[in-house]
Amino acid sequence: MTRTMKHLLAVRQGLPAEALELHESPVPQPGPGEVLVRVEAVGVNYADVLSVMNEYLTPAHYPFVPGMEFAGYVTELGAGVSGVKLGQLVACLAGQGGLAGYATVPVQALVPVPQTYTPVQAAAFGVSYLTAFHGLRTLGRGQAGEWVLVQAAAGALGRASIQLAGALDMRVVAMASTEEKLAVARELGADVTLLQDDPERVQKVREAAGGLGVPLILEVVGGQRLAESLRMAAPRGRIILIGNASREEVRVNPVDLMKRNLTLTGLWLTTLLTDPQAQAQTAAEFGRLLDKGRIAPQPGPSYALLDTAQAFSDLLDRRTSGKVIIEPWR
Length: 330
Ligand code: NDP
Prior knowledge:
It comes from Deinococcus piscis. By secondary structure, the protein is an alpha/beta fold. 31% of the residues lie in helices and 27% in strands.
């Protein structure tokens, strides 16, 4: 008898509730160089939601199975696969395909995770922690003792950024939309916390970092707030543009960078994953930071596959804290 599984399809451009449909299909076979993974947990990224709405960096081709980051157990090996064992817990950064009972994954898309992690922890790890690492170190060149501004601080990337900044002995100003989210940031080690809509936020961020501003900003809100971030930056400050969660048009006058010798750098994890220099820096430093013992994946609310549209809407509407998880077999 053919084994079947449930999977989710983005069938058209639109808000999650309009775009996503639940379907049943045969369990796929792994091709050469692929493994079959029983998906236990999907880590939902803001990018998944943007993809469904066709607002991501790359255009969406419907229909597709969303879910760029997921974790589970290897149940079959395709031809020519070596170095992966049946039953092994793997995390996958596959671009899409995770929101299903099973997924076929090219071995290059497997990310090593500690075998002591649960699948939920493994699904909450790769994208957020690698992005935070490249923002803080590879592109941000953050140093011990320096201040960094972390926005959306209780979100998946925000939590990872605070933890890694702590492991680097950096000092953190954290911003978020609610007092509850700021309390999370403080628990994770943020030194100063500020509401994202505090009317005196520019002045307060500058004062927190000694009056001149912060040397490093991990920008995830974007839109009209980016111009404001330039005013929060110290002379020669580095602003790493990681996201545009506001979904507003970004308007920045490059002349404003000149005035205080600021640097604005874009970051996209997808291209850094195959960038030799970024990979060398990851190999040299990332594991050592994790070993400092302050790093723990931060799963947030968990949903069943059937409730994915709700999960995506909650993430989009800022109702979540931590990494949103979908458990396809729940
Ligand atoms: P989060 O878990 O951080 O959730 C998104 C958060 O964005 C919300 O909780 C909210 O936090 C915040 N936010 C701020 N302003 C707005 C706004 N106007 N509208 C909606 N949300 C807002 O998601 P992720 O960790 O997945 O992603 C965080 C950001 O980082 C996103 O912009 C994402 O695109 C980006 N990213 C980019 C990567 C890259 O390779 N370039 C990789 C990973 C993430 P609050 O309520 O506190 O304001």
